[in-house]
Write a structure and sequence with these properties.
There is one protein chain. The chain is an alpha+beta fold. It is built from four helices and four strands, in the order H-H-H-H-E-E-E-E. Strand 1 and strand 2 form a beta hairpin. It folds into two domains: 5-39; 63-147, Beta-lactamase Inhibitory Protein, Chain:B, domain 1 (2-Layer Sandwich).
């Protein structure tokens, strides 16, 4: 009895290995493209953001100066739920960056005024984050996931 073409194709172990190699290669290409897309960031924080170590009117030092392991309440690094709660609609971009730190600009549009979205690594669960969108320099929306 001679096997038909479908039986030969599905039962040959080399064919399965070749398909697996091709699939893994495609996943690798997709991962490399994602890394290039998200790591090449052309828009750093605006230069007008103050980064001096002086505390603001609420007693918070700029996030870029926080950190340490010697009992400092700001350890571990990242945005806390308490800091996130201080973000208020209408707050300026500069005030938000001073409160939360530099962050990462993840979206920018100039279709209806300047709309910029920033994302900060969060303190809490794995992949915790805070995100805020600013329209013409003022906070319009905020979101978070997993902050503690």
């Amino acid at each position: 009895m001679t096997p038909n073409a479908e039986q030969t194709r599905s039962s040959h172990p080399v064919a399965h290995i070749l398909w697996a190699i091709a699939f893994i290669a495609l996943l690798g290409l997709a991962a490399r493209q994602a890394v290039r897309t998200f790591s090449a960031h052309p828009n750093p924080a605006p230069p007008e953001v103050a980064t001096e170590a002086a505390a603001d009117e609420k007693g918070f030092a700029p996030a870029s100066t926080r950190g340490g392991t010697d009992g400092d309440a700001s350890w571990p690094p990242g945005v806390s739920l308490e800091q996130y709660a201080q973000l208020q609609t209408g707050m300026s971009l500069q005030a938000a960056l001073k409160l939360l730190g530099e962050g990462e600009e993840v979206a920018r549009s100039e279709d209806y005024g300047l709309i910029v979205t920033y994302r900060w690594q969060g303190r809490g669960r794995v992949n915790a984050y805070a995100r805020a969108t600013f329209h013409n320099g003022k906070l319009t929306t905020k979101a978070q996931s997993g902050l503690e």
